Amino acid sequence: MCWHSVHAMLKAEIIKKRRELEIHVALQLGRGESVGLFGASGAGKSTVLACIAGIEEPDDGFVQIGGLKLFPPSLPLHRRPLGYLTQEPGLFPHLSVSKNVSFGIAPASQAEWIATLRERLQLDTIWNAPAALISGGQARRVSLARMLARKPPLVLLDEPFAGLDRQLVRELIDDLVFWSREVGFSMIAVDHQAEVLQRLCPQRAIVLEQGKIVQQGTWEELDRAPSTPLLRSLLAPL
């Protein structure tokens, strides 16, 4: 399925009750915009993404992309017009890299686009190799290619660079920023490093603490006047 014709305007209010806290986050994202969700571990960032992606179901609220309602009721995962990358590449180990990238779409209809991704993401040398035999860094590139092959209007990133070396992280960030301009998708990114989020989503950030938004704005605004002591410590240079 290719979703690039869907107007990527996300409106969401996520209410999710956990034993230790209640997450209540409302956000809106226009076509081509990006935002970084920032905060300490356990603030609820990943839960917000999981609820938008359909991996988890909110207890209340709504999720909508353009005129398509994702919740309520919960729309099946395969019908949600979005891409979702996490720390786990989630590839099919018995399939080749090429079949992983084109899984679920008609390769002939997207042949030129897939060839472009193959070249840009440096997958030529492993294109016909089983996914089980490639390295962890290569697997992240393949999962990125598989997501982009569908041209999703919304991309969700939940710390997909964890455990990778700094050079590869820089390359993958550059690829994502490049494709966000080329394809025009909107993006919500979660990472524990402010530096990574500032490069992925330079214009805007939303800060969560204990499941609630405590500040949002540009990174310059956050750095100049952090609203809480915890945010000040998170933004401090290492």
Describe this structure in words.
The protein has 238 residues and is of the alpha/beta class. It has a domain at 10-82 and 152-232: P-loop containing nucleotide triphosphate hydrolases (Rossmann fold), CATH 3.40.50.300. It is built from eight helices and ten strands. It has helices at residues 45-53, 97-101, 111-120, 136-149, 166-183, 194-200, 219-224, 229-235, and strands at 10-17, 22-29, 34-38, 60-65, 68-71, 83-85, 154-158, 186-190, 205-209, 212-217. The longest helix is centred in the C-terminal third of the chain and has 18 residues, at 166-183. It starts with 9 loop residues before the first strand and ends with a helix. The model has no long low-confidence stretch (mean pLDDT 89).
Short description:
A hairpin with a 2-residue loop joins β4 and β5. The strands form 2 sheets. A 6-stranded mixed beta sheet has the order 6-7-8-3-9-10, with helices on both faces. Strands 2-1-4-5 form a 4-stranded antiparallel beta sheet, covered by helices on one side. The longest helix has 18 residues.
Low-confidence stretches: none
N/C terminus separation: 43 Å
What is the N-to-C order of secondary-structure elements (H for helix, E for strand)? Answer: EEEHEEEHHHEHEHEEHH
- CATH-wise, what's the superfamily of one domain? P-loop containing nucleotide triphosphate hydrolases
Average pLDDT number: 89
The backbone outline, from C-alpha atoms, is globular
Report the CATH C-level class of one domain. Alpha Beta
Give me the CATH architecture of one domain, please: 3-Layer(aba) Sandwich
**Main sheet overview:** 6 strands, mixed
Kindly name the structural category.
alpha/beta
Count of strand segments: 10
Question: Percentage of helical residues?
Answer: 25-40%
Radius of gyration: 18 Å
CATH topology of one domain: Rossmann fold
Proportion of residues in extended strands: 15-25%
* Total helical elements: 8
Biggest sheet, spatial arrangement of strands: 6-7-8-3-9-10
